[in-house]
Write a structure and sequence with these properties.
With 128 residues, the protein is an alpha+beta fold. The protein has 4 helices and 5 strands. Bound molecules: tetrahydrodeoxyuridine. The site of tetrahydrodeoxyuridine has 13 residues, from helix 2.
């Protein structure tokens, strides 16, 4: 699975985004250590704070299937630059130790970061 293939899957899931309020569609795809891919989209709610971001949808789908080891996550939206995960998603990405985050937009811009670059000095279970 190449980074571009993972971005392509994220883009396909973006089409399923449920965004009646923001109209801002996001897609994500998480690659497991064993090579499986789970995709997700953002799912909004009339009680706005209940909205689930695309990254967390993809990760929670994978975790609910028993996955615990991850290799990378791709996220894509119609942004000026590569789409950057929100703070809440960064914390979830950190808790599941997803080591590489591939950010993209519809124009073909791509930026890849390590988890440490995306969320330095992260809170973790070792802090509790
Ligand atoms: N959104 C995501 O899906 N991922 C992010 O990392 C940032 C924000 C969604 C949530 C909401 O549906 C819309 O984008 C606008 O914030």
């Amino acid at each position: 699975m190449t980074d571009n293939e993972l971005i392509e899957i994220a883009q396909q899931y973006r089409e399923n985004a449920y965004t009646p309020y923001s109209h801002f569609k996001v897609g994500a795809a998480v690659l497991t250590a064993s090579g499986k891919v789970y995709g997700g989209c953002n799912i909004e709610n009339s009680s706005y704070g209940l909205t689930n971001c695309a990254e967390r949808t993809a990760i929670f789908k994978a975790v609910s299937e028993g996955e615990r080891e991850f290799a990378a996550l791709a996220v894509i939206a119609d942004t000026d630059g590569p789409c950057s995960p929100c703070g809440a998603c960064r914390q979830v990405i950190a808790d599941f130790r997803i080591p590489r985050i591939i950010m993209a937009n519809l124009k073909g811009d791509v930026k890849t970061m390590t988890l440490g670059e995306l969320l330095p000095f992260a809170f973790s279970d070792s802090d509790m």
